[in-house]
What we know:
Blueprint: E1 3-13, H1 53-65, E2 69-70, E3 73-74, E4 77-80, E5 90-93, E6 100-101, E7 104-105, E8 108-117, E9 121-125, E10 128-132, E11 139-145, H2 152-168, E12 181-190, E13 199-204, H3 207-226, E14 234-239, E15 244-250, E16 260-261, E17 268-269, H4 278-284, H5 289-298, H6 303-310, H7 313-325, H8 330-344, H9 353-364, H10 370-383, H11 387-393, H12 402-415, H13 417-424, H14 429-441, H15 448-459
Parallel strand pairs: 13-14
Antiparallel strand pairs: 1-11, 1-12, 2-6, 3-17, 4-5, 4-16, 6-8, 7-8, 8-11, 9-10, 12-13, 14-15
Helix pairs in contact: 1-4, 2-3, 5-6, 7-9, 8-9, 9-10, 12-14, 12-15, 13-14, 14-15
The structure holds adenosine-5'-diphosphate (ADP) and magnesium ion.
Amino acid sequence: MYRPTIGLEIHAELSTRTKMFCDSANNPDETRPNVNICPVCTAHPGTLPVINLAAVRHILRVGTAIGGTPADFSEFDRKSYFYPDIPKGYQISQYEHPLIVGGELSGVAITRVHLEEDTARSLHVEGKSLVDFNRAGIPLMELVTEPVISDAETAGKFARELQLLLRTLGASEANMEKGEMRVEANVSVSSNKDFGTKVEVKNLNSFRSVERAIAFEIRRQTALIEGGGEVVQETRGWNETKQETFHQRFKEGSADYRYFPEPDLPKLFLSEIPELSREAIRTSLPELPWERRARYAALGLKANDAAFITASVERGAFFDSVVREFDGKRKPVALAANYFISDLAVDPGKATPTSFAKLIHLFISQMLSSRGTKDTLLVLVEQGGDPEAIAKERGLIQIHDSTALTAVVDTVLAREEKAVLEYKGGKQTALQYLVGKAMKESGGAGNPNMLHKLIKEKLD
Ligand code: ADP
Ligand code: MG
């Protein structure tokens, strides 16, 4: 048996107004090339970088949220390499003194979280190579996990949880399709207690590709070894069409990046910057996804439901307003969760937390049947408005008035002679049939429990 080992390296573009070391705009949605640029991020000689503390703060918040240790002392390093997308000849990153060390997310141990600058984007069109510098210098988080993941699903789950955390913290939009979050998977297999040789898989631009690429690599490496071959350390890409990984380049095993502290930037003594102190960062954190799920579980929601609601920031915020409308009372919250998940979560349309909570109140007070609640909800989503007015307009408010219902029951019993006789003869199912007919006679507005009671009273 071969034991798979996976470690992830995840990059995320941080949401800041300006870039990492200059005041060019950080706008990942800009489509025109080379507009958000300046002499600093295009590496003109003699320019000097300035640290964007908003980016530092994002990393400290992410790191604190996952229980990592924020550095007291941190610094930036030059990572030297040559490529057209890195015109300085080096990338400013962090090496010896990352902002965060340790931590844990979704059961996976974190090695470190550090800050660096994104590179420019190279485009190859019609035999020409073009470089767009809009992305150059955008603040980039790099989070590295320990090699402790042992299957593709766990890796996918981790990456999803990280995306949710980044969005919850407002640290990054973290859309994988847009390259705002990029996952690299290191995969190895081994038949003994030592680690096997690892292969790094890049350009995975969806969670599904992450999972499939890892599963593919585990199969490929296992088959290779079983066939008497040997895994070589390399970087592989993911072919979405063929659903397989392919060789890109052999890992420059001893790639010498000549890391050394960036002399143009000041050292960071974080405890001396009040807004970046551990206390300031900790108190700035909102409720975190796992805290929200636990709170919902304590309110009586099923684990799956709590996870589904929490999985999107907007969905969670909507539902949380509903919870507040009910002062966190368990029964209405549980009911609301059911309707929310089945009819509202994907797109609440024009429904608001307040109007939705009102609707649930109508159901609880038996003014609406479950059918009537669903019908009203559909209108609420499409048109918005007041649920009671909507329900009234459509004749969905249940009739509890016994005089009105007695009239309905009399009409039905007079008409349904056969069923009445059957019931009197001992056939219990005839009663349900009569209740159904009475419901219909009332235009769906009769309260079924009351109708049931009235019919029984008349016949027994
Ligand atoms: P490198 O020196 O090649 O950058 P690191 O030790 O820094 O390697 O690890 C980089 C990433 O690879 C981390 O996410 C780590 O968890 C993962 N990793 C390290 N060794 C293995 C292995 N044998 N199998 C799978 N992943 C590994
Ligand atoms: Mg490394």
